[in-house]
Amino acid sequence: MDGIVTEVAVGVKRGSDELLSGSVLSSPNSNMSGVVVTANGNDSKKFKGEDKMDGAPSRVLHIRKLPGEVTETEVIALGLPFGKVTNILMLKGKNQAFLELATEEAAITMVNYYSAVTPHLRNQPIYIQYSNHKELKTDNTLNQRAQVVLQAVTAVQTANTPLSGTTVSESAVTPAQSPVLRIIIDNMYYPVTLDVLHQIFSKFGAVLKIITFTKNNQFQALLQYGDPVNAQQAKLALDGQNIYNACCTLRIDFSKLVNLNVKYNNDKSRDYTRPDLPSGDGQPALDPAIAAAFAKETSLLGLPVAAVPGALSPLAIPNAAAAAAAAAAGRVGMPGVSAGGNTVLLVSNLNEEMVTPQSLFTLFGVYGDVQRVKILYNKKDSALIQMADGNQSQLAMNHLNGQKMYGKIIRVTLSKHQTVQLPREGLDDQGLTKDFGNSPLHRFKKPGSKNFQNIFPPSATLHLSNIPPSVAEEDLRTLFANTGGTVKAFKFFQDHKMALLQMATVEEAIQALIDLHNYNLGENHHLRVSFSKSTI
């Protein structure tokens, strides 16, 4: 890549219609007066306006304190586990960068994760926050090197056409005797890769081959053992279990196939008995010079460069994104293994007139088993909530940070406390601390419980279950309207034991869930309320 000028001097004058050239950040309230990025990467004017730590969410992220020699690929790799990276701008002289993700949701997940786990590049901590800018506009000809790297990374990411270049031999067999398992992953909140599957399934015997593909918008895999007995043991132990706590649920069946014919070793398919296989040419063709430049950059990282033709020979190395995703979800936690990570959340900007330990228990209990809640005595708009494990606290933070509860937007972060202390015996703390450790209302007590498959972000549509036969649609509409909101739609399931009910807003649905989950409908039926992914 020598000889390509990475960034050319740019200047943006406030109020000027004329853009001199180069990379410009677009923003509704652009305060980028005077960004100058010169050819050698030294900027000559102060780069202002990006130091707000808690700006409004944006899909553009501002990354600071980068090591001087860091490459575009290393910065892009920070974002890959969370979604597609759509643009990057490096400010070399400032040791800063802007990274644009495809969606705001991906950026929010990334910021939430890295606020809990400080990211490091080249053993140096770096800092990530939302940018004031809503999108990143770069002149592709001038930001050429960055575009080349992005193009190569995208080629690796999008090379997942179903079974690209992979054929499956058609020798069918009765299902129970097959050494081949068909695996479907539900609730895929974190990326699951071929390497993660290999790590989990190897516990039950030697894994010979894996093919991964996407079908009907679901991540699926075919995995072959040397012996059908191993396949049987893995199916018995893992079917219905979660790779990460409370998400990524495994659905496992025997395949009709007895043998997989893997043609290429890359991040989509692998034959562990044949390390000599090529990486395949099913991927979009890249200019060899670009591929070589990308290989040079990625060799520092351990990205799955095998999928880039002519880049490197196939490497059986874990994808950096997979490693980060595994970290993002705590650990590759087999069920029953308590996950690492902090279990205590700090919730702030609460409505202190309305909030109670019980209401926090009910809302946060949608995402995990709440053990203890303490509303702070000297700061009653803040509370500490202790979850059963680190994955549950991560899940609750990802889904509830920025939601409205009792009319106020709540902030959820990981606390530095390891546990929530109960008050000393005999000390009255006005009911601000409550121990829910033995609560019968925990949703996730049973390993492999169906509740793990039904964890969704707060939504206006609620899923109701455990409805007694005597309760009619009108009764439920009235009940939910009494929580202070408007019921927009209602639909019973066929058996009338379950229903979908839609409130006017997400905030109203949150309120209704807090008020009515576990509500006694008579006949010894307590109503169960969850958020739904469906709409009516």
From TrEMBL:
This is Polypyrimidine tract-binding protein 2. GO terms for biological process: mRNA processing; RNA splicing. The keyword Phosphoprotein applies. Gene3D superfamilies: 3.30.70.330. InterPro entries: HnRNP-L/PTB, HNRNPL_RRM, Nucleotide-bd_a/b_plait_sf, PTBP1-like_RRM2, PTBP2_RRM1, PTBP2_RRM3, PTBP2_RRM4, RBD_domain_sf. Residues 59-133, 181-257, 343-417, 460-534 form the RRM domain. GO terms for molecular function: RNA binding. The gene is Ptbp2.
